[in-house]
Structure prediction request, 401 residues.
Amino acid sequence: MRSITLLSAALLCVLQSECSKTIPELKKEILDQILPKNENEIMIAPGNLTSDCTVVESTLYVLNIDDINENKGEISLRLYFRQYWKDYRLKYVQNSLFEYILINNEEAIWTPDTFFVNEKKGRSFEALRPNLLIRIFPDGSVIYSKKLSVTLECPMDFDKYPFDRQVCNLRLESYGNTIDNLKLKWKTESNPVGVYSENPVPVFQLQKFVSSYGMVELQKNYSFLAVDFYFSRGLSYSIYNIYLPSIVMVFISWLPFWINKKLITSRLLISMGALLSFIMILCRFSERQPQSQYSSSMLSFTATCASFLILSLVLSVLLHIFDKDVEDPIKIVESGKLNENGGKKMKLNILMKKLPCKESWLEFGARFIVPFVFGLFCVIYFVSWGALSADEPITVPMTKS
Prediction:
């Protein structure tokens, strides 16, 4: 009986001492028990100690797409990257006072050696304090979250510029652990990858992003995560700064064909002015046009417009040379310059004036055939390069996870 009383008193003292401890003190005691005591233990993955593969699940949330640099072929992202795994060495007795233990030292426990394969530049945010979160749960589950800014390589094809569509890839792999030791996969939830900003960049529109994971075969097999971002280019800038002005300049170059043929100076000034204005538009636009070693659709359009502008200038000169009005027959008679050959020319001229079509074939072609050919070119150009379907959703090929 006495022993039972002593045992109850001891148990009561223990309970009272436990209840008297604050939550920070309880968490400190747990951390002192579960955290590795030496660096060698930190470097070993949990699965390596039990001959099992460590499974690391991930989620990725893009806060903003800061920039898409077309000339350098890169994309800059700000994102939250989170990883989830279990480490049995970090198990502890659950306490009703708190759900998990929060630490902000990533060197205190083992963490996956994940890296961005196509990274060109990256940094973590450390204003005030490092933007890092590590939660340890009683069953040994770990949530590792970090805010990052990364610049990734994104090769681009401008063959169809400005109707081009680009695909930028984000790829993650384990740097040293093969798939036998560490397996990466997206967290089994509805949306493991998300983008917060609906319209990230002014030039491009993000239409879709597709996540996948699997195994890459190098000298050894490694696990990887991937996200493909599908972009379509906005056409408003190109339409208002190059297409419409170029078409207007070509139309202006046809005005001399409807002006009196004797006003050769006015006709040439209009043709030259349209050509010089087009060159100025082209020089201004080329500063923002991405550099490409391929012949883009924009190049074929501007080259064709320049050809029509030069053609209009040449036709204005030719019309002045070949369709110059001869001297008025009445004035010829009054001046007494009429001879036998002159009489025949006068009769021929009077006959030509009585014909229903006074314009020569050259002038007829300049007025009607050239505009028709240019209009036909514009229709074929915009249809063949996909301008009418530029805003349609991008068809994404099926990917195997």
Residues 216 and 281 are 48 Å apart (CA to CA).
